[in-house]
Design brief:
globular, 95 residues, mainly beta, five-stranded mixed beta barrel
Length: 95
């Protein structure tokens, strides 16, 4: 019984939901259902943010300049290597 309980607790902890805050900086690349913000779109190792089109990200333009260079803090709901999926923009980067 104790072994089963230990295994259950370990499984519950290892599959906990991912939610974090990440800093997104770089050029904004528009896709069909999301934007990618990264410093180098051609690099597999560069930090990148996939910004979903939804209510929490509709004001992304106010964090970008006229050249589509963006800088903001985002709420990341998942991560795949260097790609963070952002569903909500927290605000500007504080210095």
């Amino acid at each position: 019984m104790r072994t089963a309980l230990t295994a259950f607790c370990f499984l519950a902890l290892s599959t906990s939901a991912f939610a974090s805050e990440t800093t997104c900086t770089g050029t904004r690349y528009g896709m069909q259902d999301h934007d990618i913000v990264t410093l180098d779109i051609n690099s597999d190792s560069a930090h990148a943010c996939k910004v979903l089109y939804n209510e929490g990200t509709r004001d992304i333009a106010k964090y970008c300049n006229v050249d589509d260079y963006c800088a903001f803090r985002g709420h990341a709901v998942s991560r795949d290597g260097n790609l963070y999926v952002v569903d909500f923009i927290e605000g500007p980067i504080s210095e």
